[in-house]
């Protein structure tokens, strides 16, 4: 099974999707897949409002490569992350340096300042997000052709599509597990790109879900990457297939009971995440001293997991997000790698305890790791109704007496 290394860069306003980059600076017309409304890089704008820079991850890179796109100049710079006393710093060996500190940035060339500014998402006036509406008739359960023969012992795979909000949907792939180990397992959050199309990226793979009548086809962009969908299945299986919608529930006696499953990669480290019946299990691979799984009881439904280096020590943090189905309030479980030797839990404050900044909070959280910081945002409620405004809280990771901890650093409303 081939493992694809993933370095994730996220936008504070849009939690995904990213596209892979080549490893050489090129004109934007050839170095990247064409961007469209579903692609969400981290966006910075210069202080004088004349330049906009898009940061995209290079998921196949093992050493922290990003592509910095100068939109006005139509030019890409492929930069490598390097150690820094503060902030997050990238350079290309030819004099170009991109340096971020919290929500601010500097672009340097041969030690001379070329541009500086801030995250576009921190502007008080944000452009409205426009996404096409997804046809809700496509939510539900889809099965492989062999599902009709399940009572005769046939193996089968099912795909479940559930709404998250107007712009995103949860995708879960499970298979038969009553007679042998599950064949295919996958969980992800997809973005709506048309009334009958969802797209997402995972492990450097751009996955496309296309719906027609009562059928779902799973493929990749480009189609030449189709073999990467074998990663999520064993025994020569693949997610690439056409599935048929069924009415009602899947066979609970046969289906894999895993509630959530995801694998995260950062340089030479791998983290396998599973949740079953409220038990969250994080299994590290590649740590030098201990790779003992961490198991803890959690509340809510796991909706996503991310990985990035939040304290600029070149070692990753793993964050897992849950949502309570009753009140839609989110929760974060975080873990930090200790000098490549072990991993331990991060102290993350409950928003309910931060009374100075939690006014208007009634759940519906979104979370993201954004260039060395952690961002939480939620709609602001007034008199029990959405006000139309959003609050964004930016956290930084600091060393505490007993454990590392997230500390609220900046609060924005727009």
Structure description:
With 414 residues, this protein is an all-beta fold. It contains one helix and 28 strands. The chain has one helix at 28-31; strands at 42-46, 52-57, 65-70, 75-82, 88-91, 96-101, 104-109, 112-119, 140-143, 157-163, 168-175, 186-194, 197-202, 205-212, 215-220, 241-246, 260-266, 269-276, 279-285, 294-297, 301-308, 317-323, 330-338, 342-345, 366-370, 373-382, 385-399, 404-413. The strands form five sheets. It has an eight-stranded antiparallel β-barrel with strand order 1-2-3-4-5-6-7-8. An eight-stranded antiparallel barrel has the order 9-10-11-12-13-14-15-16.
Give me some keywords for this one.
single chain, 414 residues, Lipocalin, eight-stranded antiparallel β-barrel, globular
Low-confidence stretches: 1-40, 122-130
Question: Based on CA inertia axes, which overall geometry fits?
Answer: globular
Overall number of domains: 3
Q: How much strand?
A: over 45%
Please give the radius of gyration in angstroms.
21 Å
Question: How does the SSE layout of this entry go?
Answer:
Blueprint: H1 28-31, E1 42-46, E2 52-57, E3 65-70, E4 75-82, E5 88-91, E6 96-101, E7 104-109, E8 112-119, E9 140-143, E10 157-163, E11 168-175, E12 186-194, E13 197-202, E14 205-212, E15 215-220, E16 241-246, E17 260-266, E18 269-276, E19 279-285, E20 294-297, E21 301-308, E22 317-323, E23 330-338, E24 342-345, E25 366-370, E26 373-382, E27 385-399, E28 404-413
Question: What's a quick, concise take on this entry?
Answer:
Helices cover 1% and strands 48% of the residues.
């Amino acid at each position: 099974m081939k493992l694809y290394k993933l370095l994730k860069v996220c936008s504070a306003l849009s939690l995904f999707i990213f596209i892979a980059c080549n490893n050489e600076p090129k004109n934007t017309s050839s170095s990247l897949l064409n961007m469209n409304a579903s692609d969400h890089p981290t966006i910075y704008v210069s202080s004088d409002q004349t330049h906009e820079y898009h940061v995209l991850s290079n998921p196949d890179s093992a050493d922290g490569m990003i592509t910095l796109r100068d939109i006005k100049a139509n030019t890409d710079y492929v930069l490598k992350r390097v150690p820094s006393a503060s902030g997050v710093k990238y350079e290309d060996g030819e004099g170009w340096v991109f340096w971020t500190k919290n929500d601010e940035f500097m672009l340097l060339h041969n030690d001379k300042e070329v541009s500086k500014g801030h995250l576009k998402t921190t502007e008080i006036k944000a452009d409205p997000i426009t996404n096409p509406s997804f046809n809700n008739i496509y939510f539900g359960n889809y099965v492989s052709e062999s599902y009709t023969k399940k009572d005769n012992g046939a193996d089968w795979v099912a795909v479940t599509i559930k709404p998250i909000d107007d712009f995103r949907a949860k995708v879960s792939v499970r298979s038969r597990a009553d007679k042998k180990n599950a064949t295919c397992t996958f969980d992800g959050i997809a973005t709506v790109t048309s009334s009958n199309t969802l797209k997402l990226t995972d492990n450097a793979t751009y996955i496309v879900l296309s719906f027609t009548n009562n059928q779902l086809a799973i493929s990749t962009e480009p189609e030449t990457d189709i073999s990467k969908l074998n990663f999520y299945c064993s025994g020569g299986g693949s997610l690439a297939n056409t599935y048929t919608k069924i009415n009602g529930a899947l066979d609970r006696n046969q289906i894999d009971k895993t509630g959530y499953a995801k694998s995260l990669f950062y340089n030479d480290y791998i983290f396998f995440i599973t949740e079953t019946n409220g038990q969250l299990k994080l299994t590290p691979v590649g740590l030098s001293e201990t790779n003992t799984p961490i198991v803890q009881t959690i509340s809510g439904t796991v909706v996503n997991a991310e990985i990035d280096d939040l304290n600029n020590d070149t070692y990753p943090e793993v964050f897992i997000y849950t949502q309570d189905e009753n009140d839609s309030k989110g929760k974060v479980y975080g873990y930090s790698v200790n000098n490549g030797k072990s991993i331990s839990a991060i102290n993350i404050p409950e928003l309910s305890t931060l009374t100075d900044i939690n006014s208007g909070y009634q759940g519906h959280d979104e979370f993201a790791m954004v260039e060395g910081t952690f961002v939480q945002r939620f709609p602001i409620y007034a008199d029990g109704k959405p006000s139309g405004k959003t609050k964004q809280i930016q956290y930084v990771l600091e060393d505490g007496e007993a454990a590392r901890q997230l500390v609220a650093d900046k609060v924005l409303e727009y």
